[in-house]
Design goal:
Elements lengths: L4 E4 L5 E10 L3 H12 L4 E4 L8 H4 L20 H6 L9 H14 L6 E2 L4 E7 L4 E6 L4 E9 L21 E4 L14 E5 L3 H13 L2 E6 L5 E3 L7 H9 L1 H9 L19 H14 L2 H6 L9 H18 L3 H7 L12 E3 L2 H4 L5 E5 L5 E5 L2 E4 L3 E3 L2 E4 L8 H5 L3 E2 L6 H4 L18 E3 L12 H22 L3 E4 L1 H15 L30 H13 L5 E5 L2 E5 L9 H13 L8 H15 L8 E9 L2 E9 L8 E5 L13 H11 L2 E5 L11 H15 L11 E6 L1 H15 L5 E7 L10 H5 L8 H11 L23 E8 L3 H13 L4 E10 L13 H14 L29
Parallel strand pairs: 2-3, 2-7, 3-4, 5-18, 7-19, 8-17, 9-10, 9-17, 10-13, 11-12, 25-26, 25-27, 27-28, 28-29, 29-30
Antiparallel strand pairs: 1-2, 5-6, 6-7, 14-15, 15-16, 20-21, 21-22, 23-24, 24-26
Helix pairs in contact: 1-15, 6-7, 20-26, 21-22
The structure holds flavin-adenine dinucleotide (FAD) and NADP nicotinamide-adenine-dinucleotide phosphate (NAP).
């Protein structure tokens, strides 16, 4: 590493030479500077402001506080620092947080390496010297090996986008650039434009001082009371009881705060129980509690979320006396949590004050600012002061404001990001060597307690620089493959939550003309940390490392190819270190499955669930019938559960049957066919056929539409469904209108590539499949179409919808069956589910990313049954949607 020095550049200006130049002196920049210096890198920090603090330097408006409890919203890298500082309140004020950051800067003697009042204007990578040249607005450039942008996610205030601001003769203030001097509101007519977190914090305090306050609201937001005061005793006790453990739990949590996620679903709670949970969260005055501890489906399912929204609306109605004003303050256009909710002190009650007026800009938009105030399309609001609480060009604003950032081959970052930010891990960008972004787009950042995310990024980045130095590498760069994979993973993650359903600064929708997509990583802080660690443990996967005296290293690839929730399920299973199912014996395996099923989330309610028996070939077979809540008669789907012809019963795919019954609006009858090894081939197949025939004959008695049935099955159940179709064709009925085969077993050949590629590690293993085959069917019988339907005659079979999963040993035989059906002239649709495993679709409410697949399956069943698509009635009229339609912002790619 070169020593810090100053040299003369060709322009005649002095150029400072350092190992690392970093931009920003907020939480991120300060910790970075400390770590880099401690680890022996020569470093300079460049900061536009004249002091440290970042967010807490600029946002000095009345009421500015943190909205994550201060015992969590602080550095944790040094236990001595923690004991040296005591927070006075549950949510510290801006001045206190600023004092804290000043204290940190002094404690580690950071100011001597910060160049204040220095705005970085541009950055250019020089390939020959493998260094960045950073230019600033005060003539002193910096040449560095590594360039780190700690420029903040919410540091670039958005222009107001309203004409005429310059014509206004009164005072103008921006919450994100608040003056250091006191602003005097007393006796003044004040207007606040904007009701995000900043506006909602400032409005009650301005209302207390101003003669008249007019709040101009475009979109109402959710706000819950902070109930500020001393830090809650229970949280303090937890922290003090085991400080290291508490901090570690935060690092591996969903949002960077050590709170447990609830696992209870809304439909498992009565209305009174839901209200109680809501009231507790309301009383706790904690955003994270309200966002994560009500019920498990609140953040992932529109219906579960709507229950929270309704309770919020009741609170607003109960607080605001004028019903018309209350109605205007009620959020209507986004799920709770999809936009950042606010934490307030007396916000809604402020609208009961006689000196406060609410202007609903949806009803009277602003035309322009004029000399005397604000002109809407109905009137002129005469004011003395206008406060713009209009937010930020978030996540990318401060990065793109450094323009150009020229990387390899002179490519500019603003061109590369023209359609939205692309990154690897939200830390680096392909084509921009030796550049880090702290909490960049593509990382959890603003969806977390940001200090936790900042510390994680700083530690990861500095540790990489140390490791490179030790190995002799001088450059790192993300590969395009890795970045592409991350973009896709981001998009997959964004389907997990409801963030994509709101137009917010998270998606870029608040800035006119900005490319849209969910910018922060929605997969959670802990999982993200695990992924970053895995990049390292897999040899810096997705990075190219070079150095003057070492061979180039590039372990190219995508870090996450599984769907995010599938990945978590597999990790959990790995941690459980379970014995292979096949080692348990048939009864042991059945007990194990029963135990697993007892722990899974309860299935959703349907109209009716009834158990019964039907006559099989050798005696009665049990079944379970799921009837939709809608008026019948409904088409009937005869369903065969999975379990390798050995495990499971008519109830074992209960959540899947309920979900499909609800989504398709059809009766599902799940059959308890007999199992191996007690009943070997062809018992299961013959039971399946017999049950289907009986149900078709008794459809009307079961409340179904007579005439024909459909069949469906998963795994070995898919095998039985496929075989049943062949038997029905060959034995003169019943008429089967369609077959839904989910990850079906179709053939006895094990040499297909998915069998080998995904033999272990993806839940269903090759050795388990061998065991199932051995218990069910002797080798001599295996080519019989009643167990290997791929080997049967395929012409004349019912239309099919075949679902296969990418990481499933059975994938290729499922695809082969779909292809063979199509070749035989059978109408076939195939769903090849990317990133999924054998159990993805039956792990309802655990694998959330399976929803879209099940929606497609339900739509396919409706098509096969000749029903109109969901939402349309048989007579062509449109059934009212369960929830109001929402405008959907595009996902990251
Ligand atoms: P910042 O604090 O934004 O610092 C970035 C610094 O970079 C700034 O000082 C800026 O001047 C400087 N800079 C940017 N560009 C340049 C350039 N070109 N040249 C020179 N200098 C430059 N998060 C939470 O987790 N919890 C909270 O309670 C919370 N409350 C918030 C309240 C407000 C009012 C706001 C606006 C944000 C809040 N946030 C909160 C998010 C907050 O931004 C982060 O928590 C954290 O402070 C970010 O630290 P940072 O160092 O990454 O960025
Ligand atoms: P914001 O959430 O983006 O809110 C901006 C507000 O201004 C919105 O109500 C927006 O309306 C309105 N607005 C923007 N442009 C407008 C225009 N041209 N005309 C009329 N109205 C306009 O910004 P913010 O309040 O500064 O908060 C940003 C983020 O910073 C927060 O979400 C939070 O993460 C952080 N923050 C935290 C705290 C805290 O409590 N600790 C405090 C402040 C900020 P639309 O919704 O219609 O666009």
């Amino acid at each position: 590493m070169v020593a810090a020095s100053v040299s003369r550049a060709t322009s005649g200006c002095t150029t400072q030479q350092v190992d690392v130049a970093l931009v920003g002196a907020g939480f991120a920049g300060l910790y970075l500077l400390h770590r880099l210096r401690k680890d022996g890198f020569t470093t300079v920090a460049l900061e536009e402001a004249d002091d440290v603090g970042g967010t807490w330097y600029w946002n000095r408006y009345p009421g500015a506080r943190c909205d994550i409890q201060t015992i969590d919203y602080c550095y944790t890298f040094d236990p001595e620092l923690e004991s040296a500082w005591n927070w006075s309140e549950k949510y510290a004020t801006q001045p206190e947080i600023l004092r804290y950051l000043g204290f940190v800067a002094d404690r580690y003697d950071l100011r001597r390496d910060i160049r204040f009042c220095t705005k970085v204007k541009a950055a250019t990578w020089d390939q020959a010297s493998e260094r960045w040249l950073i230019t600033t607005d005060n003539d002193a450039a910096v040449s560095c090996r590594y360039y780190i942008m700690a420029t903040g996610c919410l540091s670039s205030p958005k222009p107001p986008e309203i004409d005429g601001v310059k014509d206004f003769e009164g005072e103008v203030y921006y919450t994100g650039r608040w003056p250091h001097e006191e602003v005097k509101f007393a006796g003044k007519r004040v207007a606040v434009i904007g009701t995000g977190s900043s506006g909602i914090q400032a409005i009650p305090l301005i209302a207390e001082q101003a003669a008249q306050l007019t709040v101009l609201q475009r979109t109402p937001n959710f706000a819950l009371p902070a109930h500020n005061g001393p830090a809650p005793a229970d949280r303090v006790a937890l922290l003090e009881g085991d400080r290291a453990g508490y901090r570690e739990q935060a690092r591996w949590s969903g949002a960077g705060v050590p709170l447990q996620l609830t696992t209870v679903f809304s439909w498992q709670l009565s209305a009174a129980e839901r209200l109680e949970r809501f009231e507790n969260a309301w009383a706790a005055g904690d955003l994270v509690c309200m966002l994560r501890q009500l019920w498990a489906d609140q953040g992932v399912d529109v219906d579960g979320n709507a229950l929270v929204v309704e309770l919020f609306r009741d609170k607003i109605r109960a607080t605001v006396r004028d019903p018309e004003i209350a109605a205007s303050l009620i959020p209507y256009d986004h799920p709770f949590g999809a936009k950042r909710p606010c934490l307030d002190t007396n916000y809604y009650a402020t609208f009961n004050r006689p000196n406060v007026t609410l202007v609903n800009l949806r009803q009277e938009p602003i035309k322009s600012i004029v000399a005397s105030g604000i002109e809407t399309d109905k009137r002129t609001l005469e004011v003395d002061i206008i406060v713009f609480a209009t937010g930020f060009d978030a996540m990318t604003g401060a990065i793109m404001a450094v323009h150009p950032i020229k990387g390899r081959d002179g490519k500019s970052l603003s061109d590369v990001w023209a359609n939205g930010p692309q990154s690897y891990l939200g830390l680096t960008v392909a084509g921009f060597p030796n550049l880090f972004m702290i909490t960049g787009p593509g990382s959890p950042s603003v969806l977390s307690n940001m200090v936790v995310s900042i510390e994680q990024h700083v530690d990861w980045a500095v540790n990489l620089l140390i490791a490179m130095r030790e190995a002799g590498f001088t450059t790192f760069e993300a590969t395009k493959t890795a970045q592409h994979g991350w973009t896709r993973h981001m998009a997959d993650c964004s389907t997990l939550t409801l963030h994509r359903l709101a137009n917010t600064w998270y998606t870029g929708a608040n800035v006119p003309g900005k490319a849209q997509g969910v910018m922060p990583y929605t997969g959670g802080v802990g999982p993200y940390r695990g992924i970053c660690d895995e990049v390292v443990s897999r040899g810096m996967l997705g990075f190219r490392l070079t150095g003057p005296n070492v061979a180039e290293q590039c372990n190219d690839g995508e870090i996450v190819r599984l769907q995010p929730d599938v990945r978590l399920v597999l990790k959990k299973l790995e941690e459980m270190k379970l014995a292979p199912v096949e080692s348990l014996g048939a009864q042991g395996a059945r007990d194990f499955v029963a135990e697993l099923n007892a722990d899974r989330p309860a299935g959703r309610p349907v109209g009716d669930v009834a158990d019964g028996t039907l006559p099989g070939t050798d005696g009665p077979l049990p079944y379970r019938l799921y009837r939709p809540a809608t008026p019948g008669p409904h088409p009937i789907v005869v369903y065969f559960h999975g379990g390798g012809w050995v495990l499971g019963d008519q109830q074992s795919d209960d959540p899947y049957c309920r979900d499909m019954c609800r989504r398709s609006g059809m009766i599902f009858v799940s059959i308890g066919y007999r199992h191996a090894p007690e009943h070997r081939f062809p018992t299961a197949a013959e039971d399946g056929y017999a049950a289907t025939r009986w149900i078709a004959e008794h459809a009307a008695e079961l409340g179904g539409l007579p005439g024909s049935v459909l069949v469906a099955g998963w795994s070995a159940g898919g095998n039985i469904a496929a075989v049943t179709c062949q038997l029905a064709r060959d034995r003169g009925g019943p008429h089967i209108a369609g077959q839904l085969l989910v990850c079906p077993v179709t053939d006895c050949t094990f040499d297909r590539s998915s069998y080998n590629g995904y033999a272990t590690g993806y839940f269903l293993t090759r050795s388990l499949m061998y065991w199932f085959w051995d218990l069910y069917c002797s080798p001599a019988d295996r080519t019989d179409p009643r167990v290997s339907p791929l080997r049967g005659k395929l012409g004349g079979l019912p239309p099919a919808f075949v679902v296969t999963c990418e990481f499933d040993p059975l994938r290729d035989e499922g695809i082969a069956y779909g292809d063979a059906l199509a070749a035989a002239g059978v109408p076939v649709e195939q769903l090849k589910a990317r990133g999924h495993i054998h159990t993805s679709f039956t792990m309802v409410d655990v694998v959330i990313t399976g929803v879209s697949g099940r929606v497609q399956m339900a739509e396919a069943l409706r098509r096969l049954a000749g029903l109109p698509p969901e939402g349309k009635q048989v007579d062509g009229s449109v059934r009212p949607a369960r929830t109001a339609p929402l405008k959907i912002a595009a996902a990251a790619d």
